[in-house]
From TrEMBL, chain A:
Protein name from the UniProt record: TlpA family protein disulfide reductase
PROSITE patterns: PROKAR_LIPOPROTEIN, THIOREDOXIN_2
Record-annotated Thioredoxin domain positions: 26-183
Top-level taxon: Bacteria
TrEMBL record, chain B:
PANTHER family noted in UniProt: OS07G0260300 PROTEIN, THIOREDOXIN-DEPENDENT PEROXIREDOXIN
Species, as recorded: Flagellimonas spongiicola
Name recorded for this polypeptide: Thioredoxin family protein
CDD domains in alphabetical order: PRX_like1
A Pfam match: AhpC-TSA
Domain annotation Thioredoxin: ranges: 30-187
Amino acid sequence: MKHLLGVLLLTLTLISCGDRTKKKESKVERQSEFAEVNTITKDSLKFPVYDFAEFEHLLKREDGKTYVVNFWATWCKPCLEEMPYFEQVYAEQKNNGLEVILVSLDMPSMWKSRLKPYVEKKELKSKVVILDDPKQNEWIPKIDPDWDGAIPATVIYNTNDRKFYGHGFTYDELNEAVNGFLNMN
Amino acid sequence: MKTLCVFGVMMLLLIAGIFVSASPSLVSGYDIGDYATDFSLKNVDGNMVSLADYKDAKGYLVIFTCNTCPYAVKYEDRIIALDKKYKPLDVPIIAINPNNPDLQPGDSFEKMKSRAKAKGFGFPYLLDEGQTVYPKYGATRTPHVYLLEKTPMGNKVRYIGAIDDNYQSAALVEEKFVENAIDAMLEGREIKVTKTRAIGCGIKA
């Protein structure tokens, strides 16, 4: 009895501690830090600028590849924190049929002043596109019915499956999620 | 042995308590038709503000917003305009900054005061000290709006979501979600769109 209770207590303690740590992490991952907005006029950009109708095909490709579609912005601190993981997983898996698309939700005033310098400084290898469609209430539910619009958020899909992740990733979590999709093919 | 079991059970209850108390950070908050809690939070003028202070109010527009989020900044002038339009109709705006200033220094109480002064806010701008109010409402981002109707049963949630359908430009707005909801509420009509979504800055707590 004594032992059983001890084991039970230990197990419960471990479960509860583990759970708390996880929640704390996920909470931290959702937090954002913002900076002042600089208003600079729009200039020529090397990133495609899509409205949702133009963007939607990137969520529906059926070419046998696995697509990681990450919604982010330069003003979203947890988005920037997970950016190296998307780059790393892309570098490791691009020969296995992985594509990573980084969908910037930066406002037009930030494209030249913040987005371009960030992408250049970090030398991002993943494809960067801009989704500029203010009718957010119409397109957010089309990406996932459960998405409330907070970023970071990510969709991973291939011809076999599709999952929405309304939170940030650690490298291990992203790698595990991506491997799950790649192993289907 | 018996005392050990009692101790064990107490420990279990304690652990269960910790387990349960760790969960509210993930609660989904209010839905349409729920009754919203009142609060007492410090305003930029130093006074404490509660919903109950507004004896003649027919409802309230509770807006979780802040100084630093680019989306919140885009909506500042529209929030001021909403206040001018609906305060005389007894639907005052109550703005609440849900961000923890320790983690987001740009949203400190002092910075809130200077922003309210610079923009001439005609409505209270409250600090959710300890970040206790926004989780009850279920706010996830700034700006995030809750329209409450004062009823004999309490303050009933009538609309949750965005102010309108175009954050970039007030001139390009096609659907004024919040205004439509308030007008319908005041006229006793059905509110057609009760929940909307928008990209926003995650609350930093």
